[in-house]
Amino acid sequence: MEAGARGSIADVAGVSVGHCTLNDGDVQTGVTVVRPHDGDVYRNKVPAASCVINGFGKSTGLVQVDELGVLETPIALTNTFGVGTVANAQTHSACEINPMIGRDRPSVNPLVFECNDGYLNDMQAFAVQEAHYRDALAACSQDFARGAVGAGRGMSCFELKGGIGTASRIAHIEGRTYVTGALVLANFGRLPQLTIAGDHVGRRLHAAKQTKIAPEQGSIIMLIATDAPLDSRQLRRLAMRAAAGLARTGSVYGHGSGDIALAFSTAYTVAHNAAFIAMPPLLADAFIDPLFQAAADSIEQAILDALFSAESVTGRDGHRRISLTDALKTQP
């Protein structure tokens, strides 16, 4: 399918991304923030839903998202041991803008996703601090780095260097044009599984390494944004199609992998105190297939983007992950 102008999740109008990267010897980690719009997400929530493909994960905020069908903070990504700190940072940030949260107003639902970057990063250093969330939030822009940056700094993918990847696709439905964008935190997969456009690249790379196949212990967080008018029920269906894109790259959603997708729409917002919700006409389910294809295609491309964008990184105890680009240079 046709890609948007930037080839990123920011092709969905209003969406922006920021990173804070920690790169210091054994500390190889960070925070990535995705803003669904530039305003106060607590006051003007966006419709959303998640899909847990394999639940080996420690994210926070998903229960309320799936119950109420909205986001009320930016989306944050970090390492497993940083979830609590980043959730506190989100709560503090929301309370500074809305001082009555938890007093005369309901509490806020921080939304933090994680992957385990412990191979390259010393997670027991607890290096991620609240200030790093604030720095990533302040850095949000339509133009942002990819690869071994932000939350993706210490991540591994198919036993190669993983990280942040993004892509977008354009769908044409009944004379209208809609954009679907994806951003992934890629930290999953075994090398022999790696498949690129149907080519089993990983098998050749694994044969050259002559190493044992280790159990799956990674994760992937997949975010899908769209400007199509969908409700939370339809967004959960859209999030589910992330699994199709993930599977195309060779993943089988291993036992130890936390594979989680979240989809949100920017077509309308839900005001915090509104008695009624002003919504545009929603897309009928019978016409939603192009968005399903766009979601699957953009997730697949975003994973490849993470692999091709990442640089080789040496981290904790001298552990090293070579980039896909460097690995391919060794092949005939």
Description:
The protein is α+β, with helices and mostly antiparallel strands and 332 residues long. The protein has one domain (9-271, 284-329): L-amino peptidase D-ALA esterase/amidase. 25% of the residues lie in helices and 27% in strands. Strands 3, 4, 9, 10, 11, 12 and 13 form a seven-stranded mixed sheet that branches. Helix 2 (83-97) packs across helix 3 (130-138) and helix 6 packs across helix 7 (289-309). The longest helix is centred in the last third of the chain and has 21 residues, at 289-309. The two termini are 31 Å apart. The model has no long low-confidence stretch (mean pLDDT 96).
Rounded mean pLDDT score: 96
> Could you tell me the strand content as a percent range?
25-35%
The CATH topology: L-amino peptidase D-ALA esterase/amidase
Could you name the ranges where pLDDT drops below 50 across 5 or more consecutive residues? none
Q: Which percent bin holds the helix content?
A: 25-40%
Form type: globular
Largest sheet composition = 7 strands, mixed
Provide a count of the helices.
Answer: 8
Termini separation (Å)?
31 Å
- The total number of structural domains is 1
Number of strands: 15
**Main CATH class:** Alpha Beta
- Radius of gyration (Å): 19 Å
What CATH architecture would you give? 4-Layer Sandwich
Structural class: alpha+beta
Order of helices and strands: EEEHEEHEHEEEEHEHHEEHEEH
Task: Identify the CATH homologous superfamily.
Answer: L-amino peptidase D-ALA esterase/amidase
Pfam families: Peptidase_S58
InterPro entries: ArgJ-like_dom_sf, Peptidase_S58_DmpA
Organism: Caballeronia concitans
GO molecular function: aminopeptidase activity
